[in-house]
Amino acid sequence: MVLQSARQAAVWAPLDSSNRYLEAKVLQAMGQGEEAFLVFGRVLQLRPINALYLQRAAGAAQDLDRRALAGSLFKSGTVLDRADPRRSKPYARWLIRQQQEEQAFVEIKRALELDPRQTRSFVDLMLLNGVPSIMMAQALPESAYAWLAYAHYLVEVKRFSAAERAFRKAMLLMPKEERPTYRAHWAYYKFLAKRERFEEAVAVIQKGIELFPDHVGLHSTAGRLYERQQINYRAIEEYRQALLLNPKLEWVRKRLERLEGGRL
Asked: Nearest-CA neighbor of 85 among 144, 139, 156?
């Protein structure tokens, strides 16, 4: 029914590429690859400068094992719309499947430079296409947010040593970000605290405080960590600073009163 409707619409509006595009997608879903590829060709005759159409046509060519043509179409779609990092995904996937990982990493890095929020989706793409977790680092730009997302992924797959390196890289890059946040320091602190590495955790929090001296959560957390290590004078300093920033923190006030009163 959908196929028939798309074809009928194409008859009534022969210059409307969207109807032919729908027809091609339906044919592709039905497993009629040759016919779908021919219809994608007609779509591109109507709209040759359309990144989505180019890459869908590339997918149809790939289904028919026309590798060179598929690669050319994937690349054309990517180059045509560099501003949209999503356009790099099909081409990067194709490159990985052709065992051209280095070129794939170049494409992924370029996309993530535009939008590091896409890091996890590209990590998943690499994972699903057989790229080892450690090799994925080669596809990351110098972005704190990209490395932080990668670190979280490494924790999920229990590559803890690599995760630590990624957390530290994210912290190192954070001051260079246009809009830096405390998130990298906080995430690494949580990682360390979960493993009861409290001395290292407090050192990470202190580095965060150097960058974000007005962040009340970092000061109050530093206070708790120092208190846990029985470095009470430092805990008092941090709790006082937290209260200066936010006098409404009653739990901090109570802990400070206990420490100042000597009732531990």
From this structure: 139
Please give the structure tokens belonging to residue 148. Answer: 């932080």
Asked if 142 contacts 173 with a C-beta cutoff of 8 angstroms, the reply is yes
- Residue corresponding to tokens 């009928």: 8
Domain assignment present for residue 28? The answer is no
Tally of domains within the chain: 1
Nearest Cα to 78, choosing from 97, 58, 64? 58
Q: What is the CATH number of the domain that holds 191?
A: 1.25.40.10
Residue 215 lies in a domain: yes
What pTM did the predictor assign?
A: 0.86
Domain that holds residue 225: 181-264
Q: Is residue 21 part of a domain?
A: no
Question: Whole-angstrom Cα distance, residue 250 to residue 162?
Answer: 39
Domain-embedded: residue 191: yes
Q: Which residues contact 82 (CB under 8 A, 6 or more apart)?
A: 110, 114
The pLDDT of residue 10: 60
Q: What single-letter DSSP state applies at residue 178?
A: S
- Secondary structure (3-state) at 261: coil
Nearest residue to 205 via CA among 190, 194, 195: 190
| Tens digits of residue pLDDT in 128-171 | 999 999 999 999 999 999 999 999 999 999 999 999 999 999 99
3-state secondary structure 30-41: CCCHHHHHHHHH
In 3-state terms, what secondary structure has residue 139?
helix
